[in-house]
Design a protein that fits this description.
The chain is of the alpha/beta class. It is globular, with a radius of gyration of 15 Å. It comes from Halorubrum sodomense.
Length: about 150
């Protein structure tokens, strides 16, 4: 059995409780392997459509995602784990192939992530929780190891 060489752990988040748990796992994994953590805040279809139609101000969405990623930063710093974050639309009104799972995997490739920790949200959860929809896709198609929590 070979040891894993992990430099960056990607954790897609959406602000849910399951995302907080996934962040904790990602930080623990990164700490164990001397790696960094990147939190990717993925916006769901409802939010993207609301932004596109001017119903929701993009700066409000950015403030919400920033509050979540600030909590990631505090936890990563407490564990002495390097961290970064970004935000992505998990849905496109103009490109049919853009969905939460593809956004996670595209980001993993772009960042050259070595490991992905993805939250699995309960099927009976809030339909706005975008990552529950992405988890199965990521598990099926990721080229790097994936931990589903």
């Amino acid at each position: 059995m070979t040891d894993l060489d992990i430099d960056l752990v990607l954790v897609p988040v959406d602000g849910s409780e399951e995302s907080h748990e996934a962040v904790d796992y990602a930080i623990a994994l990164a700490s164990e392997y001397g790696a960094g953590v990147h939190a990717l805040y993925v916006l769901d279809e409802e939010v993207v459509r609301a932004i596109d139609h001017g119903v929701v101000d993009e700066s409000e969405v950015a403030a919400d995602s920033e509050a979540f990623t600030d909590s990631v930063a505090r936890r990563a710093e407490a564990a002495e784990v390097p961290h970064s974050n970004s935000i992505a639309y998990g849905f496109s009104t103009s490109v049919k192939t853009v969905h939460p799972g593809s956004v996670v995997l595209d980001t993993a490739e772009e960042l050259e992530s070595d490991f992905i920790v993805v939250p699995r949200e309960p099927v009976s959860g809030d339909p706005g929780e975008v990552l529950g929809k992405a988890a199965e896709y990521v598990l099926l198609y990721a080229s790097q190891p994936v931990l589903s929590v």
